[in-house]
Design a protein that fits this description.
It is built from 5 helices and 12 strands. The chain has about 190 residues and is an alpha/beta fold. The chain has one domain: Rossmann fold. A 7-stranded parallel beta sheet has the order 7-11-6-1-4-5-12, with helices on both faces. A hairpin with a 2-residue loop joins β2 and β3. The longest helix is centred in the N-terminal third of the chain and has 17 residues.
Length: about 190
């Protein structure tokens, strides 16, 4: 099965306030989704996840997938990657953007491994070139830039450096919220 043309943003937040990197990624996702003819969605987990909808909508997210299960408060990587993998399997977005933060790196790597997806790290930009998504990333201490293309027909996971994109409001209202059942057991973070 191929992907949709939707672009997702993994949202890091603190009690319902999205971190700046999430707003940067929402800005980029909005532009990419428009170029692809898809929609922008955000994914937020943990206490206050649904409260991120207003701010994320202002930066271009049309939809927010939110799960506020208590397991997100006790463990970080395992429940996040499990629920996100289930969502990606079901919805098939074209691209999932993460901030290149410690938490973003952990969750993105585990998501890519779980679903056997491509993972591009340390990107400073991603754009459409000749009808294809291409990520720009520095190499050799920044002395050159490398363009990395995406495999068509599969979801790609991309880690972008914080502060690489200037966050810009879109003037849109709050993102619609779709509550996601986490389906986590108490033992989810123990293996």
């Amino acid at each position: 099965m191929g992907t949709t043309n939707d672009v997702w943003v993994f949202v890091e937040h603190s009690d319902g306030a999205p971190k700046k990197v999430a707003l940067e990624l929402a800005t980029k996702a909005r532009a990419l989704a428009a170029a692809l003819g898809g929609q922008t969605a955000a994914v937020a987990f943990g206490a206050g996840a649904a409260a991120t909808a207003a701010k994320l909508g202002a930066y271009g997210a049309a939809k927010l997938y939110a799960a506020e299960d208590a397991a997100f408060d006790n463990y970080f990587v395992t429940p996040h990657s499990k629920v996100l993998a289930d969502l990606v399997r079901e919805k098939q977005p074209k691209l999932v953007l993460f901030g290149s933060t410690p938490n973003g790196k952990d969750i993105a790597a585990r998501l890519a491994a779980k679903l056997e997806l491509g993972l591009i790290v340390n990107a400073t930009d991603v754009n459409m070139e000749n009808g294809q998504l291409v990520a720009l990333k520095p190499a050799f201490g920044g002395s050159i830039n490398v363009n990395s293309a995406f495999v068509e027909g599969r979801t790609t996971v991309l880690l972008m450096r914080p502060n690489a994109i200037a966050p810009e409001q879109s003037g849109e209202g709050a993102a619609s919220v779709e509550q996601v059942a986490a389906g986590l057991s108490d033992s989810v973070g123990t293996h």
